[in-house]
Amino acid sequence: MERRDFLNLLISTSVVFASSCKRKSKFFLQKVNKSVSPNLNNKLQFATTFPNKFLPLGIIVETFEDKPFHIFGNENHPNNRGVLQSYVLPSLYNLYDPLRFYNPQIEGKDTNIHLALNSLLNKIDRSIRNQKDIIFVIPEILSPSLFALITELKSYYNNFYFFSSSNLDTYTNQILANEVLFGISDLLLPDFSDTDIILNIGSDFLSSEVFTPFYLSRIDLKKTKIITLENTITLTGMNSQYRFLVSDKEYINILLYLLNNLSKQSGDKWSNSFNLLPIKPSINSTQIVNEVCELLATGGRVKIIIDPFQAPQLHLLGYLLEYYFNENQGIERWILPLTDYRNIISFSFEEFQQRLYQNKIGNLIFFDSNPFDWVYTEIISQIHQVSKENCFVFSYFPNHFYKLGYNWIPTMHYLEFWQDYLNIDKSISIQQPIVFPLHKNSISLNELLNFVLEKLIRNSEPIRLFDFIKKYYSKYFQDDENFFSSIKSGLFEIESRKIKPDTIRFNRHNLNRAYKFILSNPGVSTNITSETDEIRLSIKLSNKFLDGSYSSNPFLLELPDPIFGVSWDDFVVINEKYAKKNQLSDGDIVEITNESTKKSVRIPIIVNNSISSDSSLVYLGCGSFYKNLILQQYKESPLQVLKFSCKKFYFENRFYSYLDLDNKIIIRKTGEKSTISRILSFANISSFKNLKQILQNDNDKVTTIYPKRTKIEKWQLEIDLDNCIGCNICLLGCQLENNIPLIGREGISKHRDMYWIRIEKFLGENNFRQYYFLPIMCQQCDYAPCESVCPVGATSHSDDGINEMTYNRCIGSRFCMANCPYKVRKFNFDRYDRAKINSLGDYKNPDVTIRSIGVSEKCNFCLHRIRDFQSKEKYGNNVKPNSLKTACQEVCPTNAIKLIRVLNVTNDTNQRKLLANFNTKPNVVYRVKIND
Amino acid sequence: MGTEDTNRKFLVFLVVFAIINVYLLFTILRSGIGFSPRQNQSFSHKTHSGKISISCLFCHNQAETNSYANIPLTKVCVQCHIALKSESPLLSNVLLSYDSLISLKWQKIYNLPDYVRFSHRAHLFSGIDCATCHGFIDMMDSVYVVRKLTMGWCVECHKNPYKYIIPVRKISGIFYLQEFFENDSIPIKIRKLQPTSILCSKCHY
């Protein structure tokens, strides 16, 4: 009998018996029906745009057989120059997500899109006849064609109101400051491209802000010194040269004191205006100010960035300081124009609140925005008073409204419709659809407004979205050919593009006005008692979910938090001293109560010593509805205890209001304990001494029993530790490229994480760098200890120095894992397409094998890309040598990782290798400046 | 007692019968020779390739630049058929697909498992004719599988290429690449095919 026939017999027997057994369904969610038709074996690339709130990001989507499978940054895009945030990469999964909402419901009954829209139209029509308000709440978009539509709608009926406030109006306070000082309500973004010193007040601009890709694409981390003052621990603080831990209450006093000090030194006109207030910061902060003063005095261009959640007077102080340092030349900023749109779209939470309280609401329409994520508890009770028939929710996923039975209409994924966005240099980003809408009953915002406009006002049939966009931009193009070639590049250049940021100047009058504004503000307190028992909850945008709008993605939920290493779980971080005093430790569940609202929530804690004693930290995106759906357990969001209030004050004949985040909380121990699913390498921090010990120069004179590698040409990965900011995006890029399965919360808490890269943290030296991040992947050793112990020869060495794995041969003995000194091999506990998170089979990289259960797997420098490159090079295709990138290199925002082809082995003192004294001859080279 | 016995006998018979049936089914399905699914769009390789002598690489052009040999886009069909026989009812689907931007649904005939890397480009450039693996498609009306694409077959050919390799024919279109071979100093026709590497990690990684 042949082997093949025997196998057939075996399979058929087992099939018959297996079919007679009862099997518990592993998948609790239904599968998406695939309506994408296969364009067989064709790989194509499309330039399109990721709608990242006010900063659209240029991306390139690669498709195989009409299915998008790979996203990478568009290097020609002015906003991000190829830099992406971690939430962009797995956004493709959302396209195939079975949890996606695909059937419209009107008053609890399933219908189709036409009936649903008609009923919406009737409701709007009735509201117009009764002279009532129609309120649209839409996501944060800067889209010229959309604004044109809205203007037209508003000109027809005055009581159409549009609010753009998807989750938190993060930038309200900065805009207010800009209004006072410059008289514009635009957003201003600093350009760090030729900056010597950045003074950072509490912001996390290197990892978790909307504009992070913009900042990262322009900053040179090796040349720029960062001085950070913060009350919690952020990646930016960890990557700065100097970091001062202060209470966020003291920010303003420190800045005022700093300004006073500096103006005293300069002795001219500054001293007259800025000595008005007797400021007494605590002793601790006086020292800090002195140190900061010394650092800033070293010279060079200084730029100041401030946490967007902070009060407007702090932003103003920042501008004044920067103005001082730039020798009164004005400040340099890119302008994101919001002023023109403020008349038609309101960006303010307060106005929305006022509208709701007026009780004139005809219709309330939420488009892709979930007020339950906004944390404004007062608003939610007000929304509940609007009758359910008049409330329409357009949403991509079921959200908190779902249980309340509102009218539901599904929306589209961003790869399914046309949209245009305004860029920072005044060009237009084009978002083009890559797939046909997977669910016929979904709709996009432009389409909806077009529908309302055409049906209600013009009484005609709505036009297709593409025709609408084409019509809108046709005046800028001579012919169709021009238009289509512009779409291919993903960019429309309709005006002359800006190359440099604007320099904004202001006069003495404005300066004095700003200073008066700062002092008139109730936020400034003249004395601070340093040691109090009170503890406040501060919120930060999350590195993975931003403001929570991307928390509906299992890849991001599993990705470990870059600082605490937590995946899947929600947590609150508190100070070590406070924890000791109250006998709290990691994983204790505490009850957190807000002092003013008396709302409370139970949540596990993480204890950390680099957070100020009066603060506790929670990330936005905690307690997402989506995660609860996957884990099938409902947990309350810790954000519910937060209270946002608008502080109002009177200044120069006008009321100003700003967002205030003073959340005093009471922490009570419950006595319960929970396990937090953490990935261990991220949680532990080693000392700087350890880093010096394990990174050594290579020793050439080694006697070895391994065969000598004759071919000198080989591949090496060069990692620049001075550039690595530890943002974890390489883990995600690697996971998506290599089809690494998700293993769920349970798997992570059993330490079965499958990431091929891990990042170890090391404490640095104070005036050099706060922390070092050491990414460790398979080192592709020349003398690999794993190869010699494999009983079946599944792992072997290639001619060009790569340690290859033949997954089909592997029997899972795990000897290689035991013998690897770097512990970089991972055991496969779950097949990718059968993993706990289902429907992954629809979304995979076709170039990479899906490994079966029970094999040992590891990084192979993206061998499929290397082989493809080699073969292209060999057979005469024109390939650029720079075009070969590993997946981690492609996504790295700071260019810390580089794949190089080594022809001659050179000895460089900056070149260090991991555990070189083991004589394994690793091929991953670390570059770092350490003085031994 | 008697009824239980017959019941058991019947059950055993049923199980054996089922096993045999599924075995036969699997043997047919897994061997794959002669597999020729019905396509939504009728297309004759015999006409296009045999009669009109359009070379393989004219439509499957990515085979020489990529590891995948593509199924051509609708655009490729329409390039000629916009003028040629555009009124034929057989072409209505193609023109509809071209207008509506929805690609035609083709059934894949030769399927390699997910864990195997096979580069069309590398094999073409080594001077291996399409027919070596795919048979003489220019003589088939509807394409069917002529070879079991098993590892044994691959390894055999890598060990003794002479036994299996068909000399390059003009119809394949590989002569377009002749320039490359001329630079290589050994003309393609007399180029000796050496047994090549059969390391596992060549194809499985």
Key words describing this protein structure:
heterodimer, A: 932 residues, alpha/beta, 28 helices, globular, B: 205 residues, mainly alpha, 44% helix, flat
Protein architecture, described:
The complex is a heterodimer of chains A (932) and B (205). Chain A has 932 residues and is α/β, with parallel strands linked by helices. Chain A has 28 helices and 40 strands. In chain A, helix 11 runs antiparallel to helix 17. Chain A is globular. About 2% of the residues of chain A have low confidence. Chain B is an all-alpha fold. Chains A and B meet through helix 1 and helix 27 of A and helix 1 and helix 6 of B.
What general form of chain B does the structure show?
flat
Give the H and E element order of chain B: HHHHHHHHHHH
Distance between the termini of chain B: 59 Å
Q: What share of the residues of chain B does DSSP label as strand, in percent? A: under 5%
Given as residue ranges, the uncertain stretches of chain B (5+ residues, pLDDT < 50) are: 185-190
Describe the structure concisely:
The complex is a heterodimer of chains A (932) and B (205). Chain A is of the alpha/beta class. Helices cover 44% and strands 0% of the residues of chain B.
Describe the protein's topology.
The complex is a heterodimer of chains A (932) and B (205).
Chain A: H1 3-20, E1 43-50, E2 57-64, E3 67-73, H2 93-96, E4 105-106, E5 109-110, H3 113-129, E6 133-138, H4 144-156, E7 160-164, H5 172-182, E8 187-189, E9 197-201, H6 212-218, E10 225-230, H7 235-238, E11 242-245, H8 251-266, H9 269-274, H10 283-296, E12 302-306, H11 312-325, E13 331-336, H12 349-357, E14 361-367, H13 377-385, E15 391-395, E16 407-410, E17 419-422, E18 428-431, H14 445-458, H15 465-473, H16 480-489, E19 491-492, E20 502-504, H17 508-520, E21 535-540, H18 554-558, E22 572-575, H19 576-581, E23 588-594, E24 600-608, E25 615-619, H20 625-631, E26 645-651, E27 654-660, E28 664-673, H21 680-683, E29 685-686, H22 688-694, E30 695-696, E31 714-720, H23 729-737, H24 744-749, E32 758-763, E33 771-776, H25 785-789, E34 795-797, E35 803-805, H26 815-819, E36 826-827, E37 856-857, H27 863-874, H28 887-891, E38 897-902, E39 911-914, E40 924-927
Parallel strand pairs in A: 6-7, 6-14, 9-10, 9-12, 10-11, 14-15, 15-16, 21-25, 22-24, 29-32, 31-40
Antiparallel strand pairs in A: 1-2, 2-3, 4-5, 8-13, 13-20, 17-18, 18-19, 21-28, 22-25, 23-24, 23-28, 26-27, 30-39, 31-38, 32-33, 34-35, 36-37, 39-40
Helix pairs in contact in A: 4-14, 5-11, 8-10, 8-11, 11-17
Chain B: H1 2-31, H2 45-51, H3 56-59, H4 74-81, H5 92-100, H6 120-125, H7 131-134, H8 151-159, H9 161-164, H10 178-183, H11 200-203
Helix pairs in contact in B: 4-5
